[in-house]
Amino acid sequence: MKNLTQITFILLFVLGNVYAQQEKGIIGANNWLYNWTEFKPNQKQTEEPTQILTGNIDKDTRLLKRETYMLLGNVFVTNNATLTIEAGTVIIGDFASKASLTITKGAKIMAEGLETDPIIFTSNRGVKRSGDWGGLIIIGDASTNKFGNGSVASYYSDLAPSSYGYTNYGGENAESNSGVLKFVRIEFSGKRIKNDDYYSGLLLASVGNKTTIENVMVSYSGGNSFEVLGGDVCLNKLVSYRANNSDFKFNYGAQCKIDNSLAIRSPYVSSSSGARCLHLASYNKKEEVDFSKKGTKVAAKNLTFLNDSENLQSDIDKGLVKEAVYIGQNTSLDLNKSVISGFNPAVFLQNTIIINQENLDKIKFANMYFNNCKGNIFVENDSNNEDLENWYGNSAFFNVYSRSNNAETFIDFSNEKRPDFRLRINKIIASKDGVYAKEN
Domain of life of the organism in this record (predicted)? Predict the structure, then answer.
């Protein structure tokens, strides 16, 4: 009887540790990155295309796994048509024509891959690089705070005048349905349009909450990985890997939830200017928006933001590592149970944000794990963050501060084939002063 009690206690202890590991950062009883993600896509060769997609797709169309498709130029799904893509299908974006695929307002994409057979959008170049082709754009009729709704016309290169009408987004239907993206990879997208403008890997403009976006990986984007303009969309199990610009960018009154998602930045790939894991704004120019409408509001839970530096201090000294999160004026963020590891600092608030009770109530950080960051939460261009540290360091928020390297912080950080970026809770050494932990 005594042995049975001991065995039961041991099992409960082990189970308790397993579930404890899932509290902060990306979660799951198993590593949900297995099978469908790819962290070395430049080593994967694709078949020669057997079908060309160009112009407008104005009737229900099905793409088959047995074919390999090439996007040529700006391809639009129009006329309320549905584009269905079989699991395992490969779609190649043409480099020379800056290819892109747009699902226009009223149309749908049904791209339901499988964990063991994802749908892949990639480049047609022999040696693939970030920004080889445009990206995937989905347009809906949920709300935006822009006057007269909005247009994504500026995101395209060489857009024909007859196609401008297809680029309009916005409306009043928060529950609109633009389809499904599930177990999808988007690789080497984000081509430069002009000057400092780039496509995003996945751009969601006024997409409604009946749309399903989950298990989507954007890797090596020349622009943002995921960009959300307005809308009311729920995002789950997203992966941004080595984007040149921001990983997750929200703007123009987006009302969004994002859960259980991962961003991995590299100081040797990512831009050191204006590129963050999470970027919140309500506008680019004040005159664009109607302030009687809602500003951008994001509820985020179980996110992991990590910077992959071989020598963090050296990369900081070289100016290669910046903040992980940037919060603009007139936005709201509720960030909970998340990990920010290896940034300089963890968070910047735009310098126009007044630090008072009203604004602090709109910017929440709770149950966080701040690890190995050179400073935690600051107002932009202000080196004195004592008030913010005292506020967010209050024990009522249950935030944890630590210093450990990536190999000690995550379960299997260095595994190139099957990495596991869930947090290793047993390695956390909490800091008494709420800023840094003791050196290991």
Answer: Bacteria
How far apart are alpha carbons 308 and 320 in whole angstroms? 11
pLDDT in tens, 200-247: 999 999 999 999 999 999 999 999 999 999 999 999 999 999 999 999
d(CA 268, CA 414): 17
Residue 286 gets which letter from DSSP?
Answer: G
How far is Cα 248 from Cα 285, in angstroms, rounded to an integer?
A: 20
Domains belonging to the chain, first-starting first, are 25-427 (2.160.20)
Question: Alpha-carbon distance 145 to 290, whole Å?
Answer: 6
How many CB atoms sit inside 10 A of residue 367's CB?
A: 16
The count of other CB atoms within 10 Å of the CB of residue 374 is 15
250, 298 contact by CB (below 8 A): yes
Sign of CA dihedral 425, 431, 436, 440: negative
Tens-digit pLDDT profile for residues 239-288: 999 999 999 999 999 999 999 999 999 888 777 667 899 999 999 999 99
